[in-house]
């Protein structure tokens, strides 16, 4: 089991990671998300021992590393899957996967499992992006790490490939039964693949919880915004219900919010009906066609902007009037008024 | 429909001009009966042995220092890089002179401390000095290759369980072999053409023997030897043109964080190199300055150096402009530019021999300053061309078009846009030529008019006469010139080679 306590990393005088604490169960996949520069890659490098840490302790089975007592990367038995795959260009697929293995059986196992059998003797330069990523994964898993780090493994791939490969990687990690930390900046990936999600902001963990909890009960407005479209409308919280200009909903207070509050609305929590000029409670600011649905931004009469996702059959042009209503029945997160 | 660029005729003329020395040497060498004798064989063996040992030494010093300066996160990274690269700017004869004077029985160290030290002369001495002043070529080319590698391969190897040392050996070094080779060939080229070091260390290489022949009025024999040397130079240049330094997809390069005592240990281990190549000459010259002051030194030496070098710089830049313009205009122009680079490969002593003969044929040139300036220009023109061309290349063609569309005539566009933007390159080129000419020794020895002493030739006379102490002032002035040369290198075209990458965690 991996446990990290009070991990801090400084670069010069800048603190890049600030007192990170986390523990991972035996075959758990933790997704680390955050905007560019939030320290997610630094955390991976620190866990792998590729950069020195300034504070704290990392413990994994047989070893334990701290700022005073660093453990070199090669002694950690940690596997890493790199954003740019890092395949050795002068070695074939098989030689890459076999890199430091004496027993070839395990390499063969992963080569076959990831469908690379036909490419054994190919050089990395001749492979497609998806194939390279599979080779990188096979190489990492074949070396039997006790723990795996994935550094934005899909960010260099086409959108079409990402969906499939995402699940392939998840299944392979689960089959190997090793814990993993997977860094991404794609919120959809974070929510769909991981067992837990950690949201980072400026080197600090804002929230670490199941994807469902992070999405529906974000610990801060930052987390709410980062994990999907979020609108906040003013309301009043009383006895578990929030009253707003466009209807009532059950509310879950964050940080003990009460009285005058802001209600977090996801685009699916609200209904939208076009009405004749002069009616309704808001006006459309812009529309984005998404194929199966349309995303509307509506400026309410009190000036608040709310984003609503409606069926693609709903048609309304910017400037026309609409009627919005809260339609959700599950509790929504409620924040103190800013 | 294509009109030839206006700079072509001029550039062609200058290119042909650059070929004159070789033509002269062929004419001259045809007089000699001896093509090759046993003494020649010995000279060839000495030259190749010196080249081989120097290349070996510069790789052994340059590659570890490249790894250190490229990857290790040590305090004062840029400072150390400059210190380790500094010998590049020093003429090696300064090092040879001071090393020769400092070591051995009766040497300055022996006199000062009473500790007996081994003397440096012959092949080992020359190889040591050449190594000390050529390893920066390997350092810089290797370092550039190292920095172009993405860190993730090494990190991948390490997370797969390979030790750092093995990762560097197996994953990094195979990918920088070409960078090392490029630097090693530059070191070889420099060694072949160097005159001062083998002459001071009394090693009979081609350059030294050519000078001896010249002094014995064996001009045609000197020409024959010069041609033989040029064949070896051409061979090295050919190899160099075959080395392709491959650039990988850019990425963040590796950074290692050695512990404090480890950084200290690595720096301490590399300290002897700058101590011998920079601190020792400074110390010896300083000692002589204290002991003997400026005895025997005349200000006219410094003035002569400055005057001749200044003329050379001006002429070189004036000639460089059409060549650089031709080089960016088309393929033929590029070829003309390449031809002018020829002079850079011609050792100074060879250039001197050729032009002495030119002087003998054209009496109005004989024993004139013009001939010396001509030698400087032919040798260092490539420096000016490179500088002017790179600043002209960085000039966005759309700027001139924009000026024209705003109503400027071609002349106005040139004077108001092109010229101001390329002026920097011209000044930098002139300064490079100036500093090189200030430190030039062999061609100056052969071509300087009678009684015309420069800093470098005076240093040589002092060495020949054995009044070492008198070298203090010219020596220090030459070191100062070298320092200025280094500063120019750091701010000019090669600035990027001295960037300390900001590759930290993001």
Summarize the structure.
The complex is a heterodimer of chains A (338) and B (506). Chain A is α+β, with helices and mostly antiparallel strands and 338 residues long. Chain A has 8 helices and 20 strands.
Instruction: Write the H/E string of chain B, N to C.
Output: HHHHHHHHHHHHHHHHHHHHHHHH
Going by helix content, strand content and strand pairing, the class of chain A is alpha+beta
Total helix count of chain B? Answer: 24
Domain count of chain B, please report it: 2
| Structural class determined from secondary elements of chain B | mainly alpha
Keywords (chain A): ATP-binding, Cell membrane, Ion transport, Iron, Iron transport, Membrane, Nucleotide-binding, Transport
GO molecular function (chain A): ATP binding
Organism (chain A): Gilvimarinus algae
Domain ABC transporter (chain A): 2-227
Blueprint of the fold:
The complex is a heterodimer of chains A (338) and B (506).
Chain A: E1 2-11, E2 14-24, E3 29-33, H1 40-48, E4 55-60, E5 63-66, E6 78-81, H2 93-97, H3 104-113, H4 129-142, E7 147-151, H5 159-176, E8 180-184, H6 187-193, E9 196-201, E10 204-209, H7 211-216, H8 221-226, E11 231-238, E12 241-244, E13 247-253, E14 259-265, E15 270-274, E16 282-289, E17 293-300, E18 305-311, E19 321-326, E20 332-336
Parallel strand pairs in A: 3-8, 3-9, 6-7, 7-8, 13-20
Antiparallel strand pairs in A: 1-2, 1-4, 4-5, 9-10, 11-12, 11-14, 12-13, 14-20, 15-19, 16-17, 16-19, 17-18
Chain B: H1 8-18, H2 20-29, H3 38-71, H4 77-85, H5 92-102, H6 108-113, H7 122-147, H8 152-159, H9 164-193, H10 196-200, H11 206-215, H12 219-242, H13 260-270, H14 272-292, H15 299-327, H16 331-340, H17 342-345, H18 348-361, H19 369-393, H20 397-405, H21 410-439, H22 442-447, H23 455-465, H24 472-491
Helix pairs in contact in B: 1-15, 1-16, 2-12, 2-18, 3-7, 3-9, 5-7, 5-14, 7-9, 8-9, 9-12, 11-12, 12-18, 14-24, 15-16, 15-19, 15-21, 18-19, 19-21, 20-21, 21-24, 23-24
């Amino acid at each position: 089991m991996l446990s990290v306590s009070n991990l801090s990393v400084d670069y010069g005088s800048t603190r890049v990671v600030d007192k990170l604490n986390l523990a991972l169960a035996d075959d758990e996949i933790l997704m680390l998300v955050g905007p560019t520069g939030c320290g997610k890659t630094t955390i991976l490098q620190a866990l792998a021992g590729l950069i020195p840490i300034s504070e704290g302790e990392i413990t994994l089975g047989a070893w334990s590393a701290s700022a005073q007592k660093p453990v070199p990367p090669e002694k950690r038995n940690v596997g890493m899957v790199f954003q740019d795959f890092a395949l050795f260009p002068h070695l074939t697929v098989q030689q890459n996967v076999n890199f430091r293995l004496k027993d070839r059986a395990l390499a063969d196992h992963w080569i076959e499992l990831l469908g690379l059998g036909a490419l054994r003797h190919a050089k990395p330069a001749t492979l497609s992006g998806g194939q390279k990523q599979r080779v990188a994964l096979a190489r990492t898993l074949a070396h039997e790490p006790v723990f795996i780090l994935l550094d934005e493994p899909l960010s260099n791939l086409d959108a079409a490939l990402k969906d499939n490969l995402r699940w392939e990687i998840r299944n392979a990690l689960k089959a190997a039964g090793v814990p993993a930390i997977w860094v991404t900046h794609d919120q959809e990936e974070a929510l769909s693949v991981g067992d837990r999600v950690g949201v980072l902001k400026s080197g600090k963990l804002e929230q670490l919880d199941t994807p469902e909890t992070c999405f529906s009960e974000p610990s801060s407005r930052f987390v709410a915004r980062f994990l999907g479209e979020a609108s906040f409308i003013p309301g009043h919280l009383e006895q578990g219900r929030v009253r707003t200009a466009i209807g009532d909903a059950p509310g879950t207070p964050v940080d003990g919010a009460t009285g005058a509050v802001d209600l977090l609305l996801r685009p699916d929590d609200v209904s939208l009906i076009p009405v004749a000029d002069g009616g309704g409670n808001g006006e459309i600011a812009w529309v984005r066609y998404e194929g199966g649905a349309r995303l509307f931004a509506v400026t309410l009469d009190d000036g608040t902007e709310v984003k609503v996702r409606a069926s693609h059959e709903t048609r309304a042009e910017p400037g026309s009037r609409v009627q919005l209503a809260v339609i959700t029945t599950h509790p929504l997160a409620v924040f103190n008024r800013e | 429909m294509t009109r030839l660029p206006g700079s072509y005729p001029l550039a062609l003329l200058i290119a042909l001009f650059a070929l004159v020395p070789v033509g002269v040497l062929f004419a001259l060498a045809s007089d000699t009966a001896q093509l090759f004798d046993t003494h020649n064989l010995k000279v060839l063996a000495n030259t190749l042995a010196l080249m081989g040992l120097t290349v070996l030494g510069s790789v052994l010093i340059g590659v570890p220092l490249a790894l250190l300066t490229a990857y290790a996160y040590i305090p004062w990274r840029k400072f150390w890089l400059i210190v380790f690269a500094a010998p590049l700017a020093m003429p090696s004869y300064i090092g040879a002179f001071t090393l020769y004077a400092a070591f051995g029985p009766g040497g300055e160290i022996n006199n000062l401390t009473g500790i007996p030290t081994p003397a440096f002369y012959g092949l080992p001495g020359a190889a040591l000095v050449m190594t000390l002043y050529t390893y920066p070529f390997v350092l810089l080319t290797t370092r550039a290759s190292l920095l172009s590698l993405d860190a993730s391969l090494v990190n991948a190897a390490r997370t797969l369980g390979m030790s750092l040392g093995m990762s560097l050996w197996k994953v990094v070094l195979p990918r920088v072999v070409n960078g090392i080779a490029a630097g090693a060939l530059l070191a070889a080229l420099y060694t072949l053409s160097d005159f001062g070091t083998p002459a001071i260390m009394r090693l009979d290489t081609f350059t030294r023997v050519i000078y001896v022949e010249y002094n014995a009025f064996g001009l045609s024999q000197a020409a024959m030897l010069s041609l033989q040397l040029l064949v070896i130079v051409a061979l090295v240049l050919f190899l160099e043109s075959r080395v392709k330094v491959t650039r990988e997809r850019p990425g963040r390069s590796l950074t290692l964080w050695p512990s404090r005592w480890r950084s200290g240990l690595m720096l301490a281990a590399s300290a002897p190199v700058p101590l011998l190549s920079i601190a020792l000459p400074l110390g010896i010259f300083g000692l002589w300055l204290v002991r003997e002051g400026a005895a025997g030194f005349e200000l006219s030496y410094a003035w002569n150096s400055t005057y001749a070098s200044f003329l050379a710089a001006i002429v070189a830049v004036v000639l460089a402009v059409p060549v650089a313009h031709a080089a960016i205009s088309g393929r033929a122009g590029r070829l003309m530019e390449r031809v002018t680079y020829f002079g850079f490969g011609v050792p100074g002593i060879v250039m001197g021999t050729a032009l002495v003969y030119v002087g003998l044929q054209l009496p109005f040139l004989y024993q004139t300053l013009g001939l010396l300036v001509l030698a400087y220009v032919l040798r260092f023109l490539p420096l000016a061309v490179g500088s002017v061309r790179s600043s002209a290349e960085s000039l966005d063609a759309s700027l001139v078009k924009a000026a024209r569309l705003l109503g400027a005539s071609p002349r106005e566009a040139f004077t108001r846009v092109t010229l101001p933007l390329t002026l920097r390159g011209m000044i930098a080129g002139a300064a490079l030529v100036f500093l090189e000419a200030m430190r030039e020794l062999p061609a100056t020895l052969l071509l300087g008019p009678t009684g015309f002493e420069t800093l470098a030739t005076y240093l040589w006379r002092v060495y020949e006469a054995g009044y070492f102490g008198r070298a203090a002032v010219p020596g220090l002035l030459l070191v100062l010139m070298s320092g200025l040369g280094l500063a120019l290198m750091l701010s000019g075209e090669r600035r990027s080679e001295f960037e300390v990458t900001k590759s930290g965690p993001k």
